[in-house]
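RECORD TYPE: protein structure
NAME: Orotidine 5'-phosphate decarboxylase
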Amino acid sequence: MTMDPKVLVALDFNNQADAMAFVDSVDPSQCRLKVGKELFTLLGPEFVRKLVAAGFDVFLDLKFHDIPNTVAKAVAAAAELGVWMVNVHASGGREMMTAAKAALVPYGDKAPLLIGVTVLTSMEAHEMPELGIERKPEEQVLALATLTQECGLDGVVCSAQESKLLKDALGKEFLLVTPGIRPEGSAKGDQKRVVTPAKAMKDGSDYLVIGRPITQSTSPLETLKAINSSIA
Ligand SMILES: O=c1ccn([C@@H]2O[C@H](COP(=O)(O)O)[C@@H](O)[C@H]2O)c(=O)[nH]1
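PREDICTED:
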């Protein structure tokens, strides 16, 4: 059991009962919880408030990407919910990220961590040119992470395949939140740039986002415990 859990479990469930069955089986010392687009669209802010009230650190993973004013207001609304972490797409640009950061100033030390999404872990090199991106994924991740740091955000979402590169380039304080985590032998699904939990931590990831390998396991709690042991 760890008091600073590194695993952020993605609550990608399609109904409240299943989500709550998992939440009720864990405590805040074992994992943090991530609420993404599916569950938030289904259950809304009330569900997030419920998790926060139960003592969990909640990562609200809505990946805001819009004009600066809209994103700033959305990030402030997330802060009102009391979440621990919230994110925006770094490709929204400097003005958008700077506005998002400024919107959190009134919350002082109660402000959520603000994280920029770089290149989705479901993407790989051959998909980049048709988006007009000629860089390799790791070069694009480094460019967006550098911009994110310049805008004063707390860290980025990236693949753990880029963790070592980013820690070396941007320093140990800049947080790396890494989805695409797959324990040995688990199905990759739609994830492309995958890394095991132990390797991700070794290479400098600060937090591991893990969904299906835990939530679709036959024993979710045992799987979570095994992952926690593997990175202890
Ligand atoms: O680049 C990204 C950004 C976010 N995610 C989210 O993380 C989880 C991963 O779930 P798994 O079931 O472990 O694949 C999911 O909620 C994504 O929306 C990501 O995978 N990659």
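COMMENT: The pocket of LLZGTKA7 is lined by residues 10, 12, 36, 117, 120-121, 157, 179-180, 189, 191, 209-213 (CB under 6 Å).
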